[in-house]
Amino acid sequence: MGGVLEGVRVLDFGRYIAGPYCATLLAEFGAEVIRVEKRDGSEDRFVAPVGEGGEGALFLQVNRNKKCITLDPMKPQGQEVMRRLLATSDVVVANLPPQTLRAMRLDYDSLKAIKPDIILTTATAFGGPGPWSDRVGFDGVGQVMSGAVYMTGKGDPPYRAAVNWVDFGTALHCAFGTLVALIERGKSGRGQIVEGALLATALSFTNATLIEQAVISANRVPTGNLGQTAAPADIYRTSDGWVLCQVTGHPLFIRWARLMGEEHWLSDPRFADDIKRGDHGLIISERMARWCAERTTQEAVDTLGQAMIPAGPVLSPQQALEHPHIRTTGFMQDVDYPGLPNPAPTARAAVRLSETPGEIVSRPPTLGEHTDRVLADIGYDAAAIAALRRDEII
């Protein structure tokens, strides 16, 4: 596999999303990524199963372009395999709690003793230092502690997002940090720790709301889909579905008011700027709702789009797969995997480089698919590999 990161070897001990997707992004731009799993398969391999072997949709998404070995690192022979692997590696990705890293000897001090310039990329739920540093958590913990869930829905009950934006955001931050660390190592020869945290990601994404609260005590409460700092900003029913429209900034509001035939609103002091329009959002949304109700979803988004007003249809997952723009852009690539009834439409890295693009070149690995090959590369002969398998190390 070629690419900008060709020659960089990554050991991926990550689980679920934050670690594995970080490593996937590195792999998509050329790094050699070796996923290290439990002998009977790590738990994140089997979330939302879609294949005959139980492999899940999440696993298929975040593990393309990787090799896979199985290993029990808690046994002495497993530790020796790890030492040999680490000696040939540039980056270790492990979104595991600090106590688990220490138990597996993946903490930074242990890694440095083997490879002084190694980079350890890790992510925890809460970050540190702090009283919750050793606690574990998933995406939803970051969502609820950042203010985002409080502001979602209508408040009783609050709603978390159905997509794991905190996990994926943490993976993006970790991939960015890893690249920065590789650049620094190229200058100074030094490795370092790259630390992400789910809570830190969530707070960074909701930071503007927190700044507003700290500075002016806005004390906002949830209002469903109705925007609070501009209008119209809501999801509206059409004759055959739903459409989102978001108007922020006066130039957009001018175009929207003219489209609605409400040009006199441009001189109405209630709608003089975004905040005032947000304060009177119910009035503006009512007008938009009447306009949308008289049109199909396609008619609404086409008319709004031609007027250069941000809008989009609310699509089901099946409709998203079938949408002509999504299909034409090549954002997703069909990837086959043993035992799947249909190829998996896998989203490429959501950034394009004109000269050195990333690419999906290989399907996710089956469990332990590359164990023999990787061990042979670090000096194990066939008899030694057979012995490790017999002793249940691999």
Automatic annotation (TrEMBL):
Signal sequence segment: none
Keyword NAD: no
Lineage: superkingdom: Bacteria
Keyword Nucleus among record annotations: no
PANTHER family given in the database record: SUCCINATE--HYDROXYMETHYLGLUTARATE COA-TRANSFERASE
GO molecular function: CoA-transferase activity
Any Pfam family the entry gives: CoA_transf_3
Name of the protein described by the UniProt record: CoA transferase
Keyword terms: Transferase
